[in-house]
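Let's sit down with a protein and look at its sequence and fold side by side. Go ahead whenever you are ready, and we will take it from there.
>
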Amino acid sequence: MMVMRRSTKLNLYQQLQELLQQGHIETFRESLLSLHIQDQVEWFEGLEDLEIRQRVYDTLTPEELADIFQGLDVDEQQKIMAEMNRDKWILTLNEMASDDVADYLEELEDEEVSTALNEMDEETAEKVQQIMEYHEETAGALMATEFIAIKTTDTVQQVMLNLRNDAPEAETIYYLYVVDTDGRLVGVVSLRDLITSDPSEVIENVMSQRVVSVKSYQDQEEVARLMQKYDFLATPVVSEENRLVGIITVDDIIDVIEDETTEDFGEISAVRGATGADITAWESTKKRAPWIIMLMFLGLITAEVIGYFEETLQTIVILAAFIPLLMDAAGNTGTQSLAVMVRNIALGTFDKRNVWRVLRRELLTGVMIGAGSGVTIALLIILFYEQNYVIAAIVGISIMLTLSVSTLTGSIIPLIINRLKIDPAVASGPFITTLNDIFGLLIYFTIATSMIEYLM
């Protein structure tokens, strides 16, 4: 397929639309299908005229439409369903990969799902239903059932001949999975192995028995980490009895990584579900407001802390000048530690042996940053506040202790949440910031109150 520069691409997109409008169907088809599939999707997404879109539906085959449809988001897919002739729509679903059909149908109402499955090809519908039975975000829900399984008793020549017929329907043929007579996974053969082996050789002698697989109930993040670890293009999915039920390809894992990263980003910044560019202001408000309201209540605790030390603050008014500095430093440091810990947990780099080492490292980092920051701010106070050594000591020591506590807080809370089987990213940045504000003020005013006699 052809890949081109942006300017050339835009000109071709315009030409494609003109060819379709002028009725040059064969030229249009030849030009469109010569493009990379993602360019076809991009061109189709840019079509705003319903009449032009209808011509596309009439011109392309269900198989060609399926390729485009699989690259669209759910909202666009539903739009197409409403526009397209029902019979052709069902034929298009039959041509799609089973996992993509399942992803689409899961967004529909139960009645619509049942109707679509009843109208689809029986074999395809059965594969789709199989996938939809698995829990969301598991390997089973992510897998495709279009794979090629071969027997240990097959010869290389037999497999190569069968590939010519079966390969177009398969999700991938870079790896061929070997099963026994009961359908249990026993080995794997790469396409390279087949090409370089003697045609008369039996698969059992060619295959590798060191096959890495995932269970159908495993979380998709675990699958992503495994495929990243081994640099797999595809991974077999097996049942509890080790029977091969599907495969997961790297393109699906890339989508998983993107979704999980977006989810973690939303959790850390307290905007989960509100990061999309296409949601309305009202939807964004509904998702973000609860966090803001909760943080407002936590903010009342901050106000109570300041109120509790009101006498100290009234006695030494200059202490108020450094409250924003202390709170900002505490929040920023805690958020840094939070990001480090959430990232490590997400990548699965923690185990019982190194968690204490990481916590010690974060605490030591906080102490070192705090000491450096404390000394720096103390020197600046001495320089700009008439050599007020006591104020400099109060602020400097408070900064050092606060940053030390903040890094520890930002590290421990996500670990606790993860132990409770909750996504550690819910220990969001704003939450950690507010919590560290409270700790920082307590440290600051406690130290100031204990040294107040030296300020009089």
The beta strands are 149-151, 175-179, 185-190, 214-215, 234-238, 244-249.
